[in-house]
Amino acid sequence: MLFKKSQSIKFLQPTMESFETIVGPATEVHGRLVANESLRIDGSVIGNIEARQGKNVSIALGRTGVVQGDIYAFRVLVAGRVEGNIYATERVELHEGAEVRGDITYGQLGIEHGAKLNGLMISRNGEEPEGMVDSSAVFQANWAKIKSR
């Protein structure tokens, strides 16, 4: 595990995140990871990642980052791969090259062209993401077409 102070990376908006802990690309962590401060993952984590209750913690996956487990945080930024559900109280960002196999529960959602999601998008405030359609309605319409053949 590589620890560096104040690493900064740029995201969708012109804001900068600072990460106190970085899991390097050659590192593999097995087990539950609890973060008190923002965390960047460029390696692999097999297990859930949780932000400490009441803390505004960001979890970021770099392009080489892989998580096999659920992520619970204030903000989740993904450029790598997640095989599990994401629960973000504030915002989820899926950057180009991101691949998520699981459901995303979010306050706000940003998706760049080239990101992949195999799961449901669940808004905490009941709103659908901009430009999105109800996946169950699309499924029902397609299912009706298939059954009528």
Structure description:
The chain is mainly beta. The chain has one domain. Helix content is 9%, strand content 46%. The chain contains one helix and 18 strands. It has one helix spanning 135-147, and strands at 7-10, 16-19, 21-23, 28-30, 33-35, 39-41, 44-46, 49-51, 58-61, 66-68, 71-78, 81-83, 86-94, 99-101, 104-106, 108-111, 116-118, 121-123. The longest helix is centred in the C-terminal third of the chain and has 13 residues, at 135-147. The protein is globular, with a radius of gyration of 16 Å.
Topology of helices and strands:
Elements lengths: L6 E4 L5 E4 L1 E3 L4 E3 L2 E3 L3 E3 L2 E3 L2 E3 L6 E4 L4 E3 L2 E8 L2 E3 L2 E9 L4 E3 L2 E3 L1 E4 L4 E3 L2 E3 L11 H13 L2
Parallel strand pairs: 3-6, 4-7, 5-8, 6-9, 7-10, 8-11, 9-11, 10-12, 11-13, 12-14, 13-15, 13-16, 14-17, 15-18
Antiparallel strand pairs: 1-2
> Quick one: how many beta strands?
18
Give the N-terminus to C-terminus distance in angstroms.
Answer: 56 Å
Shape: globular
Order of helices and strands, N to C?
EEEEEEEEEEEEEEEEEEH
- The percentage helix is under 10%
Largest sheet: 10 strands, parallel
Uncertain stretches of 5 or more adjacent residues:
1-16
The count of domains is 1
Radius of gyration: 16 Å
Oligomer: single chain
Judged by helices, strands and strand pairing, the structural class is mainly beta
Average predicted local confidence, pLDDT = 81
Q: Beta fraction of the residues?
A: over 45%
Helix count, DSSP H or I runs of 4 or more residues: 1
Key descriptive features of the protein:
1 helix, ten-stranded parallel beta sheet, globular, 149 residues, mainly beta, six-stranded parallel beta sheet
